[in-house]
Amino acid sequence: MYRGEELRAFGEAASATLRRDSTRVTARDLVAVLPEKGAPVRISAPHGEGVLSKSVFSASGGVVVSQREDVARTASARYEPSEGGGGLVRGDEPVVVEGTGYRLEGPRFTLDPDVGQIVIEGGAHLDAGRGVAR
Asked: Long-range contacts: 21-28, Cβ < 8 Å, 24+?
């Protein structure tokens, strides 16, 4: 997927369908990579769907997002475009983010992939320091 001349994402799936009349796409066992400048972001999920012409996508069945040693897990997430050409990833189900020396949990989240920032909404719990997973 390109934005202008810039490659924004690429990936593969065990199976995918595209309706040409509506640009609706569905996929099974999908893996997408966002080729970020510092390190690529890898997204995997058992199920995905969206509408290409609207740049709206959702993934479900257990979504895993990883970048370097940081890994986030949630049941489902969706990408919604925002004004200015970017977009946000939102999840309304619990999320766990783990990395070297920390574990962050919360009931829902918003991720801005352009700046690499995740906001845990509805109350967050952070375990940091020695003895934390990883």
From this structure: 22/51, 22/53, 23/51, 23/52, 23/53, 23/54, 24/49, 24/50, 24/51, 24/52, 25/49, 25/50, 25/51, 25/52
Res 133 pLDDT > 60: no
DSSP bridge pairs for 51: 24, 56
pLDDT tens digits for range 1-14: 766 787 777 899 99
**Any bridge partners for residue 70, and if so which?**
67
Phi and psi at 79, nearest 5°, equal: -105, 130
Query: In angstroms, rounded to a whole number, what is the distance separating the alpha carbons of residues 59 and 78?
Result: 6
Instruction: Write down the pTM of the prediction.
Output: 0.84
